[in-house]
Amino acid sequence: MKTDYLNQFVIIGLFWLLMAISLTVNAEQKKVFDGPDGSEYEVHYMAFESTFLDKDIARQYGLVRSKAMGVLNVSMIHVSAMGERKAVPFLLETNAKNDIQQVTHVSMSQVIEGESVYYIGQIQFREGDVMTIDLAAYPQGAIDPFRIRFAHTFYNN
After folding, report:
1. Prediction pTM value
2. Beta strands per DSSP E along the chain
3. In DSSP terms, which residues pair with 150 in a beta bridge?
4. Contacts for 55 with CB less than 8 Å, ≥ 6 apart
5. CB distance 61 to 111 below 8 Å
6. CA 125 to chain centre
7. Which of 48, 107, 108, 135 could be joined to 119 by an S-S link, Cβ 3.0–4.6 Å?
8. Residue 17 in contact with residue 9, Cβ under 8 Å?
9. Mean pLDDT in each 10-residue stretch from start to end of the chain (157 residues)?
10. How far is CA 66 from CA 47, 101, 129, in A?
11. Which domains, ranges and CATH numbers included, belong to the chain?
């Protein structure tokens, strides 16, 4: 009988822990841009604290796990007029601005895994910093970039 109550307590505790983590990690976001010939480009982006990464994953991608480091992840999907979806490489310029308007260039590294193409980079922050991230993504052949601005509040976890 005591074991049943203990199991229920553990399950409820895990549920609330997962809920708290999901509230602190921004889910991936996307913005859709018109392409030539009725096609579209989806730019997917997200920011999160590096401490959410598994140590082995961070090491594999050369990322630093720290209470003062965040991770940015950006990818682009080309959707043809026929609905075919394909990850595509692109040029990316990334800057971040903190609460006191200090702008930092964020160096992004391209990662290709099978048919997936994405870019990851890291940003340093202080507890509670609201970082405004500016992305300028240039798909192949584009003259004008796809521009995205979003904000993320980073916390020391």
Report:
1. 0.79
2. 29-34, 40-49, 69-79, 85-87, 90-97, 103-105, 108-113, 116-124, 130-139, 146-153
3. 133
4. 65
5. yes
6. 15
7. 108
8. no
9. 44 39 58 89 96 93 94 96 94 94 94 94 91 95 92 88
10. 14, 23, 15
11. 27-153 (2.60.40.3340)
